[in-house]
Amino acid sequence: MSDSLSDLLGGRRGALDATAPPLAFAAAWLLTAAIGWSTAAALAAAAAVAVIRLVRGEKATAVLGSMTAVAVGAAVALHTGRAEDFFLIQLLSNTASALLWAASIAVRWPLLGVVVGLLLGQRFRWRRDPALLRAYSRASWVWVLQYALRTTAFTTLWWLGSVTALAITRVALSWPLVALVIAVSAAVLRKSLPTNHPGLRHPQLPTPAEPQPKTA
């Protein structure tokens, strides 16, 4: 199940997006200590990644989203004059994600189920399967913990103003952490489902109640 879940959620396709721009920013900062050059390096790296992804035939909307995130981070750093603020967008987005995923579990619409269900073309039929709903809720907590870990790490290093450490942490908490989260959440899904359940692709919908015989 972990392999299929990894494929559904994007696999390693986002690794370059998450690592190249911050590494370029940190490298330029170490060499020049100039925010202008550092943001230019990050934008150049993001543009190179975008070209690679477009050549591979990936969707332009996904490429544009990645470029926009880097551009916003660069704009914030240039506006404040603080190099560490290049990573502020990551801090805020992970905080928001942790809260959103936790809220989705509380209202019984776990986001892992929403995402996987849409990718599988099931829409929301999985919610009518009590076993799948419970499994997706439990597995979604793994993603909440991921975002909480990132928020804690980014907040601490941002407060300390450590640009190099922020870049290294951004890389360490990108694909390596996502790979771990996918594997753990897949294991939680598998363990949470009954042994006779057909799996994520086959929600077991409740059968209609049989009509009761009329009594005289």
UniProtKB/TrEMBL annotation:
It comes from the Bacteria. The chain crosses the membrane at residues 26-52, 59-78, 98-120, 141-161, 167-189. Pfam families: DUF3159. This is Intracellular septation protein A. The keyword Isomerase does not apply. Keywords: Membrane, Transmembrane, Transmembrane helix. InterPro entries: UCP010219 (IPR016566).
